[in-house]
Design brief:
With about 425 residues, the protein is α/β, with parallel strands linked by helices. The protein has eleven helices and 21 strands. Helix 4 packs across helix 5, helix 7 packs parallel to helix 8 and helix 9 packs across helix 11. It binds 5'-O-[hydroxy(phenylacetyl)phosphoryl]adenosine.
Length: about 425
C-alpha cells in the first residue's frame, strides 16, 4: 500500500476508534472532556497528538474490565500482561479481534520465512501470557504444523525438536540460548535438528546475541515485538532482511515521544514508542505509552514491504538504569560482553549503593578455558572488559567472572537486573 493510501485508511480507522471509545469507555470520556476534545476534532492524522495518552496506571484503575468497549457477551478471549508488580492488566478480544490478531501474526511469521511446510515449535507458556496463543493461531493460519509444547523441560523440548523435525523455533531469545547451552552440554549437534528459523521476541536482545544464536542453532533468527496491553505479539516483526521490524500500520499508529517532555519527536529520532490501535473492537487503546525506547525507520526495505520499521528496542525506559547519573541500558552492556571471546552469553547486572555512590557489578559466565586458566590471564581479561565497558557506558563497572551455568536460567523472559538500591 502506498503511504498516501495507508494514511487515508489510518485516518478513517482512527476517527472510528475515537468515536467508539467516546461512546463506550468512561475512562476516555473523562480524558476527552478534560482535554476539551471531541471526536469531530480529529480531522487529520496530525490531530492524533491532541488526544491524551493512555498509561498502565489507567489500565490498573479500570481493572479488570473497565476499558472494554463491548459487552462481555461479545468477548471471546481474555489475556493479561506479564507484569510482576501489582495487579495484572486484563485485555479482551472479540471474534474479529482474534481474526485480526491471527492475521498480524501470520504476516510476520510469513515475512520471517515460515510457510505451509514448516513445523512450528512453540515454547511459550500457554496461559494468560499472549505469546503462545498469538503465535499458535498465526502458525495455523499460514497452514504450518504447530507443536504447542508450551514451556519447561528443556531436554524434552530438544527431544521433540529432533523427533518431530521442528523447523521453526518460537521462544524468547534468552531461552533459545538456554536450549543451545543444553544441547552443547549433551553433545547434540544443531545439525541433528531440522531448524531453519527462529522467531524470537518478548524481551530486548542485541544483534550480537542474534549472531550467537544463529551460529549455535544453525537458523535464521528474526525479531518480533508486541505487548499485551495493545494486542500481544504481532504488532511488528522482521522480514528475512533483519533490518528492523515492520510495524503493521494499517492496525496501529506509532509515534515516538520524548518520555520526559511528552513531545512528539520527528521521524528517525530515538524515544519512547506510543501506540494507538485503530481496528480493535473489545479493547481499543489510544496513544498507549509503551515505555519501550526505539526509533522508526521510514526508508524503503529491500523486501518491498511498505510499513515502517521499528528498530530493536534498547529496552524499556523503566529498565533504564541511572548509575552515578549516567543512563545505562542492559543491552549496551550485552553488546560488549558478546563481542568478548570467552564470555558465555549469560549475564546479570547487580546495582547497589555504597554510601551515596551507586555501584554496578556485571556478573558474566565465562567458558571453562578462561575459568581454569592462570590468574594473570583472568585478571587481564577482566581489565579489558572493564575498560571497554567504561568507554561504551561512560561509567565504571566491576566485572565478576562466574562459572558456567551459575546464573539462573528462565524459560520465558530473562531477568538481567537486580537493583538492590530499591530495598
Ligand atoms: O511479551 C508479547 C510478546 C510475546 C511479544 C511473544 C513477542 C513474542 P508482554 O508480556 O505484555 O507481552 O510484554 C511486553 O515486552 O513492552 C517490551 O518491553 C518487551 N518486548 C516484547 N517483545 C520485544 C522485542 C509480550 N522483540 C513487553 N524486543 C514490551 C524488545 C520486547 N522488547
Amino acid at each position: 500500500m502506498s503511504r498516501a493510501a495507508l494514511e487515508q485508511l489510518q485516518l478513517l480507522r482512527l476517527q472510528q476508534t475515537v468515536e467508539r471509545v467516546q461512546q463506550k469507555v468512561p475512562c476516555y470520556q473523562e480524558k476527552f472532556a478534560r482535554a476539551q476534545i471531541k471526536p469531530g476534532d480529529i480531522q487529520s492524522l496530525d490531530d492524533l497528538r491532541r488526544l491524551p495518552f493512555t498509561t498502565k496506571e489507567d489500565l490498573r484503575q479500570n481493572y479488570p474490565y473497565g476499558m472494554f468497549a463491548v459487552p462481555m457477551r461479545d468477548v471471546v478471549r481474555i489475556h493479561s500482561s506479564s507484569g510482576t508488580t501489582g495487579k495484572p492488566t486484563v485485555v479482551g478480544y472479540t471474534r474479529n479481534d482474534i481474526r485480526m490478531w491471527t492475521q498480524m501474526v501470520a504476516r510476520f511469521m510469513t515475512a520471517a520465512g515460515v510457510d505451509i511446510n514448516d513445523i512450528v515449535h512453540i515454547t511459550f507458556g500457554y496461559g494468560l501470557f499472549t505469546g503462545a496463543f498469538g503465535l499458535h493461531y498465526g502458525g495455523e493460519e499460514i497452514g504450518s504444523s504447530v507443536i504447542p509444547i508450551s514451556s519447561g523441560n528443556t531436554d524434552k523440548q530438544i527431544m521433540i525438536m529432533q523427533d518431530y523435525r521442528s523447523t521453526a523455533l518460537v521462544c524468547t531469545p534468552s531461552y533459545a540460548l538456554t536450549i543451545a547451552d543444553r544441547m552443547e552440554q549433551k553433545g547434540i549437534s544443531p545439525k541433528s535438528l531440522a531448524l531453519k528459523y527462529g522467531l524470537f521476541g518478548g524481551e530486548p536482545w542485541s544483534d550480537e546475541m542474534r549472531r550467537e544464536i544463529e551460529q549455535r542453532l544453525g537458523l535464521l533468527a528474526t525479531d518480533n515485538y508486541g505487548l499485551s496491553e495493545v494486542m500481544g505479539p504481532g504488532i511488528a516483526g522482521e522480514c528475512q532482511f533483519q533490518q528492523g521490524m515492520h510495524l503493521f500500520e494499517d492496525h496501529f499508529i506509532p509515534e515516538i515521544i520524548d518520555p520526559d517532555t511528552e513531545e512528539v519527536l520527528p521521524p528517525g529520532a530515538v524515544g519512547e514508542l506510543v501506540l494507538s490501535s485503530i481496528s480493535k473492537e473489545a479493547f481499543p487503546i489510544l496513544r498507549y505509552r509503551t515505555r519501550d525506547i526505539t526509533r522508526l525507520d521510514y526508508t524503503p526495505c529491500a523486501c518491498g514491504r511498505t510499513h515502517v520499521r521499528m528498530m530493536k528496542t534498547m529496552g524499556r525506559s523503566d529498565d533504564m538504569l541511572i548509575i552515578k547519573g549516567v543512563n545505562v541500558f542492559p543491552t549496551q552492556i550485552e553488546e560488549v560482553l558478546f563481542q568478548a571471546e570467552g564470555c558465555e552469553p549469560h549475564y546479570q547486572l547487580i546495582v547497589d549503593r555504597e554510601g551515596s555512590m551507586d555501584t554496578l557489578e556485571i556478573q558474566v559466565e565465562v567458558n571453562e578455558c578462561i575459568f581454569f586458566d592462570e590468574m594473570r590471564k583472568q585478571r587481564e581479561f577482566v581489565d579489558q572488559l572493564q575498560k571497554k565497558i567504561m568507554s561504551v557506558l561512560g561509567v565504571g563497572a566491576k566485572v565478576k567472572l562466574v562459572e558456567p551455568s551459575s546464573i539462573t536460567r528462565h524459560e520465558g523472559k530473562a531477568q538481567r537486573v537486580i537493583d538492590r538500591r530499591k530495598r
